[in-house]
Design brief:
The complex is a heterodimer of chains A (255) and B (284). By secondary structure, chain A is α/β, with parallel strands linked by helices. Helices cover 20% and strands 35% of the residues of chain A. In chain B, 31% of the residues lie in helices and 20% in strands. Chain B is built from nine helices and 14 strands. The chains are: A alpha/beta (255), B alpha/beta (284).
């Protein structure tokens, strides 16, 4: 993990209040792995005080990509960044997802949870078969579809308002796809905490299916020194999202 | 840079990394080694799992935390963590936290046989209350005296007492700590704070209330240092919202001998190092 100055290469709107930013930072990009994230200082002042933890949505030799929704003061500042501006970033942070070979892998995304799954899908594609379940509020919030199309054998979509795909929650489509889950090695889930909890607590008919969740929690340092981002273990005590995760085998957690 | 001495302990520069903001001193060792000292996460007699999440809430120019002293307990600390800290090239200060003088005494006794450099007595954590007076030990001069005295009896190591300014004049507890034999005081620990979710009306933090830190509290912390420094002849370690070399200099002018950098480490784990470089540059 290193702290470096990253140069904004692109920062564009890709959905309602949703932005995609490419940052040139070769030292971090070269070693970034799926499942990891970066801490971004959105400015040099101390308001906002903390960095923004954002998952790595893609990475090349020189650049990393982050995707964010503008919701608070940090992301409001971030969306104004122009090409050539400089941001301090710390990364890559968190545990990398270990490579997998010759498996059927299911990805399930809710909303912006799709972002970290992109980098994962790109890495898994070569050696595995991928199926994506992806739900969002409406059609305009279903982002990155063009990029997922060549990576996945099948894509199931849902929207809350029915403007694209099936109307309803993506979890309902996932739970009814027993034939797919029966052949799957594992399921990667990224999205709202309620969705991850729902899937984690669901009684699957496939006891060997491994469930991995991309967790989010209010974070302080992002690098294991403040003990701020706790997630409850099945047995007594907590794990840290920043250094023990952010991707967890859900069987070890009490959600 | 001029070395600073507290009791027999020499600090190569005035910057110490504050408790709770730099793990146990086992991470970013290259940063820790350049500092005057590093204070470990608070250690208690028995293990503590800490508070439920969320534990962190960002506030204007600051942070509210309710981590809740998550730590493995003193025995596991001595057995498993301390051996990993032997290569540190800086003063290792262990922050100890307890809810009675008796517990402080046991903690000090257990740590006295180790090769740590100093103890920081934490009588000011918003997460721990005294068993008898049902408030922080640091909110009661008599309880403060008893706690510091209990540690003093067990060790000849340098003792720093970390004070609070929550609903108590720290001058009173500074004097009590002085009478009980502390070698230095650290001013101030986090301030009481509360965050409420305006939509649900419920407290935001899992631990309900928290401790406020960061630049938001700096003017008040600086005031506390100045207030106590003019009346108590004890070395003071200033703490509260330091993010720059200018902040450090302000604390030194207010009467601190040393400073602790805390919340800034959460924004940037290299903050201590960057502040130190800037001080060296300013001082030529």
């Amino acid at each position: 993990m290193i702290r470096k100055q990253a140069i904004v290469y692109r920062n564009e709107k890709i959905g309602p209040d949703i932005y995609s930013m490419w940052l040139r930072c070769p030292q971090i990009a070269k070693i970034a792995k799926p499942g990891q994230f970066v801490q971004i200082a959105v400015n040099d002042s101390y308001e906002p005080f903390l960095c923004r933890p954002l998952s790595i949505a893609d990475s090349t030799n020189n650049m990393i990509r982050i995707i964010y929704r503008v919701i608070g003061k940090g992301t409001k500042i971030l969306k104004e960044k122009k090409k050539g501006e400089v941001l301090s970033i710390l990364g890559p942070l968190g545990k990398a997802i270990a490579p997998i070979k010759n498996k059927n892998i299911v990805l399930c995304a809710g909303g912006l949870g799709i972002a970290p799954l992109l980098y994962l899908a790109k890495n898994l594609k070569k050696n595995n078969d991928l199926i994506l379940f992806y739900g969002a509020r409406n059609e305009s919030e279903l982002i990155l579809l063009k990029e997922f199309k060549p990576l996945c054998d099948k894509i199931f979509l849902s929207t809350d308002d029915g403007s694209r795909g099936k109307k309803g929650f993506i979890t309902d489509i996932l739970f009814s796809a027993q034939d797919i889950l029966a052949n799957a090695y594992c399921l990667y889930i990224a999205g709202p905490s309620a969705m991850i909890k729902k899937i984690s607590n669901y009684k699957f008919n496939t006891p060997n299916l491994k469930l991995f969740g991309f967790l989010e929690e209010r974070m302080g340092c992002g690098c294991g020194i403040c003990f701020g981002c706790a997630v409850k273990k099945k047995e007594n005590g907590y794990l840290r999202v920043c250094t023990d995760g952010p991707v967890f085998n859900l069987s070890q957690l009490e959600l | 840079m001029t070395k600073i001495k507290i009791k027999n302990l020499i600090f190569k520069n005035p910057i110490i990394l504050a408790s709770g903001t730099f793990s146990f001193g086992d991470k970013f060792i290259s940063v820790a080694n350049e500092m005057g000292g590093i204070v470990t996460k608070g250690i208690t007699l028995l293990p503590r799992v800490g508070n439920p999440p969320p534990r962190i809430c960002e506030t204007p120019a600051g942070i509210l935390n309710s981590v809740g002293l998550e730590n493995p307990g003193v025995d596991k600390f001595c057995k498993e963590i301390l051996p990993r800290l032997q290569s540190l090239k800086t003063n290792l200060i262990v922050n100890i936290s307890a809810n009675s003088a008796k517990e402080f005494s046991i903690l000090a006794q257990k740590l006295n046989d180790t090769n740590i450099d100093a103890l920081e007595i934490n009588i000011s954590c918003p997460n721990i209350k005294d068993k008898d007076c049902n408030k922080m030990i640091g909110q009661d001069p008599k309880a403060t005296y008893e706690a510091v005295k209990a540690v003093r009896k067990q060790t000849k190591k340098t003792i720093i007492t970390k004070l609070t300014a929550n609903f108590i004049d720290p001058l009173l507890t500074a004097q009590a700590a002085n009478d009980a034999g502390t070698d230095a005081i650290c001013l101030i620990n986090t301030l009481y704070g509360l965050a409420i979710d305006s939509k649900t009306g419920k407290p935001f933090l899992g631990g309900i209330t928290g401790g406020l830190s960061g630049p938001a509290i700096k003017p008040f912390a600086l005031y506390c240092v100045w207030h106590v420094a003019s009346k108590v002849k004890l070395p003071i370690i200033g703490c509260g919202g330091i993010v720059s070399a200018d902040d450090v200099l302000e604390y030194l002018h207010a009467g601190s001998k040393l400073v602790e950098v805390g919340s800034a480490n959460l924004r940037n784990p290299y903050a201590g190092l960057e502040i130190l470089k800037e001080i060296n540059r300013l001082r030529g």
